[in-house]
Amino acid sequence: MLALAAASTLLFACSKKKDDPDAGKATINYQVTSSNASSTDFTFTSAKGSGKQIAFKGDGSTRVEEYLLNFNNVDFFSNGAAGAIASIKVPAGSYTNAQFNYQMIPSRNPALEIRGTYNANGTPVPVRINLDQFVEISTKMPSVTLEAGKTYTATLNLDLAKVVEGITASHMTNATRTNGEVVIAYYSNPALLQTVVNNINNVIQHSVTIQ
């Protein structure tokens, strides 16, 4: 009877684990932050994104891609819970070429809106950058190991100095102003917007810290 009881208990435990969709998975909490908000020329005070989804991609024993739609707006100037996006479940294992992605898409708000000032010979001029197109912050780690049942935090950093890299004093002096503000968008100063887009696509090395 004891042997039979033990066997029945083991069968029940295995069945329960098999039915649990999160068994054998790790949890990754995604959050965002920003860096280099102040420089000689620019001082940024806010950066907000209109969320679309978060994603994890990596090469393990097989290719793993996990996506989660999430339309919450986030504040890149917040830390911890205030800058949190969402959590995603990922099969435990060791991965190479691991990618942690946060995708934004315009709706009633731009996909990404950055505000601040530009120092024009000692006079601060308001600056607003509106990206009204799909924006993705994609960061890659050469390798990462995720253990089943454990929770990790992936912090994606937006380097604001690199967002405006290549925009010079001459550009800002000649930029069109709207009610005293330099608006960089598809409808205003589009050449400067293209510089920003190129920076986000090609220059920025978004960092992720797994804890």
From TrEMBL:
It comes from Flaviaesturariibacter amylovorans. The lineage of its organism: Bacteria, Pseudomonadati, Bacteroidota, Chitinophagia, Chitinophagales. This is DUF4382 domain-containing protein.
